[in-house]
Amino acid sequence: MFMGEYSPALDDKGRVAIPVKLRKAFGEQEPVEKLVVTHGFDRCLMAFRDQEWNEFVEKKLMPLSQSDPKNRMSVRFLVGGACECELDKQGRMVIPSNLLKYAGITNDVIILGLFNKIEIWSKEVYEECRPDGAFIDSFADELGI
Phi and psi (nearest 5°) for 53? Predict the structure, then answer.
């Protein structure tokens, strides 16, 4: 399982280093040499291991009726925007420029480990979306803690 918040930077060659703790979590089943990266929600990117990506597509996207224009658009957004990104020996990957542009990533990056995937954010965009105190208090009430 992935968890945690990390702050690597995008290097001059457009590479971002996946933090060691996340790489170890990705490698629980087998060493990871590539990730599937696609558009995420709220202007982030999502990265999956092959197995989790396949499960996401098969369980969440394939059952969607393609007669619904909203579903077709959603599948185009997620699957059409997806690409395999290889990790080098230092755990860095090159993110395609179209995905960097979508997420507004130019330098500072925030990487979040979220259960079965990671999210990759522009630091500036993430700071705009970060939950505030009122939201956290409301969520705590919903959880009953």
Answer: -65, -45
Segments in 30-132 forming alpha helices (H): 50-56, 69-75, 97-103, 123-129
CATH class of 2-143: alpha beta
For the chain, which residues make up each domain, given as ranges? 2-143
Q: Which two tokens stand for residue 1?
A: 């399982």
Handedness of CA 72, 73, 76, 82 (dihedral sign): negative
Q: Which residues pair with 17 in a beta bridge?
A: 92
Residue 96: the pLDDT is 95
On whether the pTM is more than 0.85, the answer is yes
Q: How confident is the model over 74-100, as pLDDT tens digits?
A: 999 999 999 999 999 888 999 999 999
